[in-house]
Amino acid sequence: NAGVTQTPKFQVLKTGQSMTLQCAQDMNHEYMSWYRQDPGMGLRLIHYSVGAGITDQGEVPNGYNVSRSTTEDFPLRLLSAAPSQTSVYFCASSTPGERGYEQYFGPGTRLTVT
Amino acid sequence: GEDVEQSLFLSVREGDSSVINCTYTDSSSTYLYWYKQEPGAGLQLLTYIFSNMDMKQDQRLTVLLNKKDKHLSLRIADTQTGDSAIYFCLSGAGSYQLTFGKGTKLSVIP
């Protein structure tokens, strides 16, 4: 199993540009989520999904869109990038198991908006 | 909403023990996790404890849970430079929604 994969690893955008951060998992997990990590802020939940066709907002959803057309993929779209969206983005997946709702994280995408 | 508090920084000398503390507010927390994030990497599960346990030991790691005070600690014995990382405390109440602490950055001085 590759686990949770994210592309790209690094990205630089200009203000106003759009892009999609890709996330895929091969563990058949129903739950997937996106977080952003900023210094001193920990991880904050952007959007999450409990299954294909179902998405919901987290703590900081503004400026981001998601969709979940398959169990495996959960892309995050930035419609019009702003410098405040400079951050490290992590995708995670989960399913109930012997360790409760343990989350499996991808390696992250480091995004800089200039 | 629910909250998890951790101190942001800890510095220890190589070979000493490290103790990272965490307090949480959700009295219905059933799972408590410690995740480790190495520089430039994602988060990986280090260890976990169920709320009906007081202690869990796993090689150099000891997790202590005081459910009455809602206090969780992670002790790393014989701390090595490879233990330098950010450690996150997470609580869960039996659903996908986990509450994250802001992370404790552990620096190990050679």
Topology:
The complex is a heterodimer of chains A (114) and B (110).
Chain A: E1 4-7, E2 10-13, E3 19-25, E4 31-38, E5 42-51, E6 54-57, E7 64-66, E8 76-78, E9 87-94, E10 103-105, E11 109-113
Parallel strand pairs in A: 2-11
Antiparallel strand pairs in A: 1-3, 3-8, 4-5, 4-9, 5-6, 7-8, 9-10, 9-11
Chain B: E1 4-6, E2 9-13, E3 18-24, E4 31-37, E5 43-50, E6 55-58, E7 61-66, E8 71-76, E9 85-92, E10 98-100, E11 104-109
Parallel strand pairs in B: 2-11
Antiparallel strand pairs in B: 1-3, 3-8, 4-5, 4-9, 6-7, 7-8, 9-10, 9-11
Task: Give short descriptive properties of this protein.
heterodimer, A: 114 residues, mainly beta, four-stranded antiparallel sheet, B: 110 residues
Concise overview:
The complex is a heterodimer of chains A (114) and B (110). Chain A has 114 residues and is mainly β.
Protein described:
- The complex is a heterodimer of chains A (114) and B (110).
- Chain A is mainly β and 114 residues long.
- Chain A has no helices and eleven strands.
- The radius of gyration of chain A is 13 Å and the shape is globular.
- The mean pLDDT of chain A is 96.
- The chains are: A mainly beta (114), B mainly beta (110).
- The interface between A and B is medium-sized, with 21 and 24 residues.
- Sequence stretches where pLDDT stays below 50 over 5 or more residues of chain B: none
Mean pLDDT of chain A: 96
- Structural class given helices, strands, pairing of chain A? mainly beta
Number of strands of chain A: 11
The most extensive interface between chains reads: A-B, 21 and 24 residues
Give the oligomer, counting copies of the same chain as homo and different chains as hetero: heterodimer
Helix-and-strand structural type of chain B: mainly beta
Question: Mind telling me the C-alpha Rg of chain B?
Answer: 13 Å
Count of helical stretches of chain A: 0
Biggest sheet descriptor of chain A:
7 strands, mixed
The rough form of chain B would be described as globular
> Which shape of chain A, going by the Cα principal axes?
globular
**SSE topology string of chain A:** EEEEEEEEEEE
Give the end-to-end Cα distance of chain B, rounded to a whole number of Å: 40 Å
Mean pLDDT of chain B: 94
Beta-strand segment tally of chain B: 11
Taking the sheet with the most strands of chain B, its summary is: 6 strands, mixed
Proportion of residues in helical segments of chain A:
under 10%
